[in-house]
């Protein structure tokens, strides 16, 4: 038998057993202590395994990255803010910054907007479940497979060869010349085309959550408004939308973070060529292609800093939620 | 209930006529969402010269040309089945471990009082945004010969996926557990139940929808992952590489063999799609339970 299979079985059964044993043992140990010490210590014992993993795999490396961001290429001497100054003073990274902004705005707007629209529309048809599955399913596909799929969509053959890409063939059938979808970089056109691939994958995620929020609204509330003579548009804008606002906020922050970290699609479809570079991919390139961990680390820190406003918003929301619990 | 006033007046005489635009829009969106995948699926069954000389939609009118050769060719690549098995070896433990670890932490965050709880939870959720790429160098050093010496092994990936998956797992489970009725836990405490009993007898069974959703999510994430496997296994141990790496290598070695590319993409998609379609009800219920009432 494959020794790796034995290891896998041991891990799948063993890890839960060890964790349960750990909790059980700590509870026995806590039994020896006084009431107050017990209540004070217990949460930390329950949190310990998770905090240990987080410390090793996320906190420690992030601190390492912060330190490295102030160091030179070889990591031997400190260069102050040079890496950050470099980032904000060269055309390549400013372009990546612009594209990342396009990703942030367009991806969030598309996924949340379309997600809301579809949630509202399918709520009114009998084949709702089927419609939702169709929109939702691309989320299960890997970015690599999605990129292959959309390469077929965006493909442009050199005329007079027949257009075998779906979009260009569709354009051709109404007499429009084929478009080089992922090569034309004017006004970030091709970046938006890449965002569309991601939006195709993530709209279903937003739709499902928004749809649940929509169904959570008490129908009597809406009926009461209608009886009072409100039009459907007013009902939606004055009642439905405000009630859904917290959920829209959750979905929006999730998508902002997803947009900021996105790089796979750029990596597979263009490798950052044709001016489609984004900040998260530039980090990888600085690290592996240009071998400058200092600069890569600085980019990592800039990404983190960009997320702080989103986090601050999340903290406020979390506090408010706790207050009403 | 709706943003479309035209479709709203269900009881009016023109009901059927007024609903036509609604159906048109919904079906249009469904078609738009399906076309990319259908195009790839059709091309994966077509012979090479057909794929490069005409669009996939032409094949629908001449289905006789469909062939399984592309799949036979892709599956015959020696490391394809090994990759499939490796992917399972990687993703199943990488799904089980973080969920167990996260469940205890989520319960502590939801139902235990301790100083700094909210701040700590916010920090944990804040870790959601750490770009994975920025953690690779320190972790690779830790995994290397001077550290634990596990680079290239499954263990290396299991541990990494656990660390990376925890913030979302804790966030989701904490939100779901936090919504459970307070009275249940209060009366359990009055009856003398310890937190351990309350956790295993009450919190855990009631959290099953969220756990199911999380399991599906984490499984999809680890199965579809290319980056983590590439960094921690890729170079060190070619015998352990998952399907995603095998396929991406295949893509470059086939040098733009479109029909093979399509078939290979579908092989990687098969299992996650099956899991997803079979279990999407649980997935939706759990994810939604954690997010909506926020």
Give me the secondary-structure topology.
The complex is a heterodimer of chains A (325) and B (294).
Chain A: H1 3-30, H2 35-68, H3 82-88, H4 91-122, H5 128-136, H6 143-154, H7 166-173, H8 189-215, H9 219-227, H10 232-261, H11 264-269, H12 279-289, H13 293-323
Chain B: H1 5-8, H2 15-44, H3 48-53, H4 69-76, H5 79-111, H6 117-126, H7 136-143, H8 154-178, H9 182-190, H10 195-206, H11 208-224, H12 227-234, H13 243-254, H14 258-291
Helix pairs in contact in B: 2-14, 4-14, 5-8, 5-11, 5-13, 6-8, 8-11, 8-12, 8-14, 11-14, 13-14
Which chain pair shows the most residues in contact? A-B, 114 and 115 residues
Oligomer: heterodimer
Unreliable stretches of chain A: none
What is the chain-wise order of helices and strands of chain B? HHHHHHHHHHHHHH
Task: Evaluate the radius of gyration of chain B.
Answer: 24 Å
Reported by name, the CATH topology of the largest domain in chain A is MetI-like fold
| SS class of chain B | mainly alpha
Just give the CATH class of the largest domain in chain B.
Answer: Mainly Alpha
- Tell me the CATH architecture of the largest domain in chain A: Orthogonal Bundle
Task: Classify the secondary structure makeup of chain A into a structural class.
Answer: mainly alpha
Major β-sheet annotation of chain A = none
How much helix is in the residues of chain A? over 70%
How much is the average pLDDT of chain B?
82
The number of helical segments of chain A is 13
- The span between the termini of chain A is 53 Å
Averaged pLDDT of chain A: 87
- Into how many domains do the coordinates of chain B divide? 2
- Rounded to the nearest angstrom, the radius of gyration of chain A is 25 Å
Number of β-strand runs of chain B: 0
The main sheet of chain B comes to: none
